[in-house]
Amino acid sequence: MSFFESLFGQGKTTMIAPEDALPGRESPVLPAPRPHTVLGTSLTGPWEPDTRVLYLAMGCFWGAEEIFWQVPGVVSTAVGYMGGTTPNPTYEEVCTARTGHTETAMVAYDPSRVSEEELLRIFWERHDPTQGFRQGNDVGTQYRSAVYWTTPEQGEAARRTAARYQEVLDAKGYDPITTELRPAAEVGSFYLAEDYHQQYLSEAKNPNGYRCHATTGVPYPDAA
Predict the structure, then answer these.
(1) Residues paired with 54 in a beta bridge
(2) Under 8 Å CB-to-CB from 107, ≥6 apart: which residues?
(3) DSSP 138-157
């Protein structure tokens, strides 16, 4: 057993079987989300008709969301739980690794202003997609890397950029990418996290709060 498994519990690095997951609840933990603290937009839409949504998991969702709300062309962001079994989980439940969810950032964007490739370049570069069920000192299945897409174009971009990034990681001696690549419709619902998690690192909330940006330091090959 590793140091981190002994510290956090071995079960936190093993995906829970659906039949063993926590039961959850029928009602959402955030029934009436406020507007985005930074962008002033809705966290749930509706947005302009051409807006697309991509779900990205790259460790602690506080820092992940902050990265993407600063990208020109991003319309809104939100944090929540996705990829598991438990309906409408709480943060405390997700932290037990008994819901199967990963901490996820929802990114709503205008494709005429920012492309899927650009968002995914940022995604690959701003975390370490080879670490499995952890990012840096954050250990557990909730911290796994994932891309959940809502359009065929996003799916193609996710697979293509993952393959390209793997090539440069191989050249640097890194392990294989462990990022989960799946369509959102297959994964299931995105459950909004509690209000205090939304835009947690904004000036209005916790501008000096915790950020985990474990990275490989390897630039995506198309980056300048």
Answers:
(1) 107
(2) 53, 54, 55, 56, 68, 74, 77, 119
(3) EESGGG-EEEEESSHHHHHH
Write the DSSP symbol of residue 132: S
**pTM (two decimals):** 0.94
Structure token pair of residue 37:
């603290």
Bridge partners for 216 per DSSP: none
3-class secondary-structure state, position 93: helix
Q: Is 73 exposed, middle or buried (0-12, 13-18, 19+ CB in 10 A)?
A: middle
Express each pLDDT in 154-212 by its tens digit. 999 999 999 999 999 999 999 999 999 999 999 999 999 999 999 999 999 999 999 98
Q: Which residues are identified as catalytic?
A: 60
Burial label, 61 (beta-carbon count in 10 A; 0-12, 13-18, 19+) = buried
pLDDT digits (tens, 9 = 90+) for 95-113: 999 999 999 999 999 999 9
